[in-house]
């Protein structure tokens, strides 16, 4: 059954994470829409909610011509104008844009339609949007790194140095080398710096405390002021550090020059880790009296497989013990990496590496036989594609796939959905901490209690855990 209050809350925020999970029938117009529809939000009394488009049509509603429910995830790929344009922008910013034709094919639309919706939403063509992003990234690397200009050209997405120079001349009437001369001389190993904005408030110390308890030795290092870790993306590896700026309301990001080629992806992973885009004010209005700290976030993950592995190790043991085991696995199976931060020295082991591990070897590191086998099962599932954190499927479907892996149960799957999948309504209702915070042992009753916090139950989980520490 759908919770009408929860569905209406998701509708008001137009959160893309709910697209395709339910539909809204509007009694005043006779049409049904997706949660991301850009029409004026109807009054709650005029709304009814349905699990499927077919159910809405059976109730007498016709499909909206603007958001086109037939293109929702689960029916087809996203196609509403604002949502499609946002998807293109996200791909450009994260470095995943593959060109107009290939991106249009991925989204199941024509390249002409892709150009039209981006022009309508941003006032520029996709190529102009991409060009601006490349130039700004190149400018940042020219001013804040000692990378050779040739490397900067390719790291920014240009196909040649000639194209790079031409774009700078046309847009800025500058030669890249002149911009480099105007910047102070920097040592070759100087890290790249940039800034990320966030929605206020942001309880930084509490966020760092949560991450510090779960940090993997030699892979992550967390202090009261900063979060640092090693990172591997494709063929690039290095380190990244985030800390809250003292003189302005931004997060400062430092990363090794070796990660310059994947800078957009690094920034996106830090945004996910720190949950910087959360609209906590609206969420806390929904959570009400269980709110403990204004602006409390749901920490994400820089590496979804790593988070999933850490969750498996954390089953039925303490947080500290799980971190110790994760550190041993990283030291034994992870690749060494050069890092200017002394506490960091290895990369998280890949699924390819762990899929070939032997159960006895993992047991020697302190794992039980059953837990060692679950680690191997998880690694093999990720390697073969049985699970993939890049698939465009619903969180419920991802949760089901995880639970199909022998050794992974409800708690682990919900915890992974909270952090690795960034699913705001994930809720590990069997968690001992939640039972203690609510004073209730019956998981079914806890699920019933949680309905009033939907669709933000992942945030409710964080506040309930926080209440245990506050008490």
Would you mind describing this structure in some detail?
The strands form two sheets. This protein has a five-stranded antiparallel sheet with strand order 5-9-8-7-6. The protein has 471 residues and is of the alpha+beta class. The protein has 22 helices and nine strands. Helix 3 (81-93) packs parallel to helix 6, helix 13 (304-313) packs antiparallel against helix 17 (369-384) and helix 18 (395-403) packs antiparallel against helix 19. The model is unreliable at 74-80 (pLDDT under 50). The protein is globular and about 65 Å long. It folds into four domains: 4-71, 3-Layer(aba) Sandwich (DNA Methylphosphotriester Repair Domain); 81-123; 128-190, Arc Repressor Mutant, subunit A; 194-410, TATA-Binding Protein (2-Layer Sandwich), CATH 3.30.310.
**CATH homologous superfamily (4th level) name of the largest domain:** DNA-3-methyladenine glycosylase AlkA, N-terminal domain
Can you count the beta strands?
9
> Tell me, what is the CATH class of the largest domain?
Alpha Beta
> Mind telling me which CATH architecture of the largest domain this is?
2-Layer Sandwich
Describe the sheet with the most strands.
5 strands, antiparallel
Q: What is the CATH T-level topology of the largest domain?
A: TATA-Binding Protein
Total domain modules: 4
